[in-house]
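Summary of Year 1 activities. Much of the first year was spent building the evaluation harness for sequence design. The harness presents a backbone, in tokenized form, and records the residue chosen at every position. We chose the following record to illustrate the format because it has been used consistently in internal testing since the harness was completed.
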């Protein structure tokens, strides 16, 4: 028997650490090769970490909720046979390997960074960037939420010197004072913010305090869309096709058509360079509710898919999100996001932008209600759309015109087939 020390493997490009969301094994357990050892949440996705070998778990390193750095000791295994000194890159002794450190919101960075930077709020990418250039994060004034140091702050430090950045930062952008603790009673329950819910919280704060949001709301007469969907589903059923069209494929198609006319909404905003990156692909994010919280899965190249293909792809991604089986590439690369709660969508809401995108479309409850057609009050199938935009790069008039372009295709859905031609 031999001791095999398994370190956390690479989790994706630019990802230097992840939160230990859940252990699937404990000391004393026997494991098979490729059996899941733990779930780790990164800035981009939750990934499962499989065992590289069969054996017995001697020790797990770190608790649920801790931050684990890439290439840090994760699990000590007892395995059959001899283990090469550098097998899998995990040959160091257990005594020499650092245990996973507990991680509050301001988690420490890698060992190559100055010690004073360990309590600074910053993403792993920002920490790596500072480390590669020999910068002390503690000497850089953070302009992000709660004083978080952003990539743009590091770039400014490189261009003008750290002292200039500290001196030039407005008072409103300095680190906010720590919030006072909230007291609790004997009958209260405290629920730690962990895993996906913690990442959602961090991303929402970053988006809301980075991009100045504004919203535009308008109603849609979807009566013709309701009728078209019913006809197409009947035709699919008659042809023996099990595909069921809901309204999302139509909304995606209408949105893509509008994005082609207003390309600045199909974009990401680069905070570091202060540039709008107008994307050449149409990768539409769809917000999907999961037991752990809201996840945005990305429909890649939505402009190239038919309504039927969109129906199948959105159904597949929704199921994968609920089952926690989304792949990294299915969670990244989005250019614009659609948030729809279906019949739970309410009258209207103002969704928060999926940063670094610059717009998000909220789709709300479709129901029959009275509407004026000509001089008559009639019953129509109506719903509301709400568009939230980043006011730094999108003006109100552009947002309104973009929304009305989507509405045009939803109120006269036959035009979608011309747009797809």
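For this record, the design step produced the sequence shown next.
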């Amino acid at each position: 028997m031999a001791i095999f020390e398994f370190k956390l493997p690479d989790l994706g490009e630019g990802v230097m650490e992840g939160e230990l969301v859940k252990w699937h094994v404990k000391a004393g357990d026997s494991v098979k090769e490729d059996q899941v050892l733990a779930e780790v949440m990164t800035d981009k996705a939750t990934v499962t970490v499989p065992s590289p070998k069969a054996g017995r778990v001697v020790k797990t390193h770190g608790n649920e909720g801790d931050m684990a750095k890439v290439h840090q000791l994760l699990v000590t295994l007892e395995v059959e046979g001899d283990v090469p000194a550098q097998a899998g890159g995990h040959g160091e002794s257990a005594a020499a390997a650092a245990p996973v450190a507990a991680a509050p919101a301001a988690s420490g960075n890698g060992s190559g960074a100055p010690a004073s930077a360990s309590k600074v709020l910053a993403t792993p990418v920002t920490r790596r960037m500072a480390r590669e250039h020999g910068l002390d994060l503690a000497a850089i004034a953070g302009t992000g939420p709660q004083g978080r140091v952003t990539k743009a702050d590091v770039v400014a430090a490189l261009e003008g010197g750290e002292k200039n950045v500290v001196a030039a930062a407005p008072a409103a952008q300095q680190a906010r004072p720590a919030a006072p603790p909230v007291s609790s009673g004997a009958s209260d329950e405290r629920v730690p913010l962990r895993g996906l819910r913690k990442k959602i919280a961090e991303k929402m704060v970053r988006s809301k305090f980075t991009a100045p949001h504004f919203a535009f709301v308008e109603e849609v007469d979807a009566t013709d869309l309701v009728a078209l969907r019913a006809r197409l589903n009947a035709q699919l059923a008659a042809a023996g096709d099990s595909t069921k069209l809901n309204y999302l494929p139509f909304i995606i198609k209408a949105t893509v058509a509008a994005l082609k006319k207003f390309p600045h909404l199909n974009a990401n905003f680069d905070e570091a360079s202060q540039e709008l990156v107008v994307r050449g692909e149409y990768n539409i994010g769809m917000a999907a509710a999961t037991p752990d919280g809201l996840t945005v899965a990305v429909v890649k190249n939505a402009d190239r898919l038919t309504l039927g293909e969109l129906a199948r792809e959105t159904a597949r991604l929704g199921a994968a999100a609920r089952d926690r089986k989304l792949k990294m590439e299915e969670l990244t690369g989005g250019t614009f996001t659609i948030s729809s709660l279906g019949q739970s969508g309410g009258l209207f809401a103002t969704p928060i932008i999926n940063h670094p995108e610059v717009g998000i479309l909220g789709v709300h409850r479709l129901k029959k209600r009275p509407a004026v057609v000509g001089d008559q009050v009639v019953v129509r199938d109506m719903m509301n759309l709400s568009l939230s935009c980043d006011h730094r790069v999108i003006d109100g008039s552009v947002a309104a015109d973009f929304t009305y372009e989507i509405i045009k295709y939803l109120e006269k859905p036959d035009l979608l087939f011309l747009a797809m031609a």
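Residues 85-102, 104-118, 161-175 have pLDDT under 50 and may be disordered. Quantitative recovery figures across the full test set are reported in Table 2.
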